Amino acid sequence: MKGRMVSLVLMFILTLSLVVPAGAQSVVSLSLRVYEDGYVLVNETISTANYTVALEIPLLGEYVEGLIAVDENGNVLPVEINGGNVTVYFENASLITISYYTPDLTSKDGPVWTVSLESPVPVEIALPENSIIVDLSDIPLQIRDNVVVMPAGNISVSYVIPIQTTQTTTTTTTSSGGTGGGQSTTVTTTTPSPTSSTTTTSSQPTGGPSEGSSGGGAWWVILVIILVGAGMGYAYFRRGERTRSRDTSNPEALERFREKIESMEDLNDDEKGALIFLIENGGKAPQSRVRKALGLPKTTAWRMFKRLEERGLVRIYKLGRENWVELVLE
């Protein structure tokens, strides 16, 4: 009996030793791709310790989406997220690459965006297209187009995304001769910033009275068609908005939903609190607002909303840079 207990203890200690802590592996490379809405795609490659079967890796953000881990051969590996770390399970891999999205690496102050993190290795950061760098925490190792490579340490890159503007220049040349009147050639040059393009319109004769009135009539017809199309598009958009928000603005439907969740005994207090908060706010709200109202960490709230979505009680969608959650009413 005593020998059996000793064996069980030794097996437990061996299992614990197979999980490599966050500081026992070596980061080989780290790259970031920053999107215009502030989300960042993280790609991190880690060298594993020998004779291990699991690796615990710290994440660069509390809130992550779409996490996947592969070995050097591209085989997908099982993972388990625990708070701010992810545990990757493997067999004979020497390199592991994890990829995921997170909004926690960026912040915005007015028009200025900032990417900030701490890294033990140089980091390659791909900024949004046409970004203008306004501040760096250190001298970059390399800059090419919209990609900057920063040295290891505390890294900060600030940038702005310029607003597209258009400048249009129109030049009209009129030539006259004979009895047929004159002919006008119009050249229109459109220059958007920061990129540019040139568009040339075909020449339009303006020699006789009948030609002038015909050309003017054609332009009026085109203008009317454009205005009618725009009006129909706006009406369709408003009708779609009314259709999407019809259920969530119905007090009776919200009250029936309240009675439904109060009868569901398998919901925990946080889940019921989130659903009641949505009922009291018209049926939908940003995830961050619900999370702050309940005092929940980002990861806990994210998992809670996923559970509610899987049960068909809420719908999660993206509006601008924020994730919104909306009740699914019958």
Write structural notes for this entry.
β2 (about 25-35) and β3 (about 40-45) form a beta hairpin. The chain has 4 domains: about 1-160, Immunoglobulin-like; about 165-205, no CATH class; about 210-245; about 245-325, Arc Repressor Mutant, subunit A. The chain contains 6 helices and 22 strands. By secondary structure, the protein is α+β, with helices and mostly antiparallel strands. The model is unreliable at about 10-20, about 195-215 and about 235-250 (pLDDT under 50). The protein is globular. Helix content is about 30%, strand content about 40%. Strands 6-5-9-3-2-12-15-14 form an 8-stranded mixed sheet, with no helix packed on it. It has a 4-stranded mixed sheet with strand order 1-4-8-7. It comes from Thermococcus guaymasensis DSM 11113. Keywords: Membrane, Transmembrane, Transmembrane helix. InterPro entries: DUF7343, WH-like_DNA-bd_sf, WH_DNA-bd_sf. Pfam families: DUF7343.
Tags for this entry?
Immunoglobulin-like; 22 strands; single chain; four-stranded mixed sheet; 330 residues; eight-stranded mixed sheet; 4 domains; alpha+beta
